[in-house]
Write a structure and sequence with these properties.
Layout lengths: L10 H9 E12 L7 E12 L6 E7 L4 E2 L10 E6 L10 H8 L3 E5 L5 E3 L4 E4 L7 E5 L4 E8 L2
Antiparallel strand pairs: 1-2, 3-10, 4-9, 5-8, 5-10, 6-7, 6-9
Length: about 150
Amino acid sequence: MNEPVPELISDKFISVLRDEDRVTARLDVYHEQEDEQPTHINSISSELISKSEDPVYSRKIKIGEEWISVDTGWFKESGYILIQNIKKKYRANPDEKEIESEKKKTIRIRSGNGEGWIIKNGSFFFGSPSEMSKVQIKCECETTQIEIHIFPK
């Protein structure tokens, strides 16, 4: 008994990726409140991009309280940028002071001299900047470790 091939793995789908690459992002958001059912929001974005031999540029760095330009590696322009504010993993039980210090390690991201967005500890930012060269980041308190991923345009 031959069943039809699902569209996702058909020859048409495969041939598209011979000529172009694809970036797909999926986000599941849950909002939970006492005595209420959680609200679930699911969002998916998928975009065909120009064929590229370049892999995603990924880097872990520490940032401080001064604004710095985002290191884009070999990309002069990017299609998407993913910045993750990495939450510290403790080897032992942290005291209240350590926990409060970690909570303050919020990242700010901006394009140009505007106010921009906040990336809380353990959270992330995913977007497509209009001008990659103008994107800057900083930590609001002390230093923190982040991961940056730059995707081709």
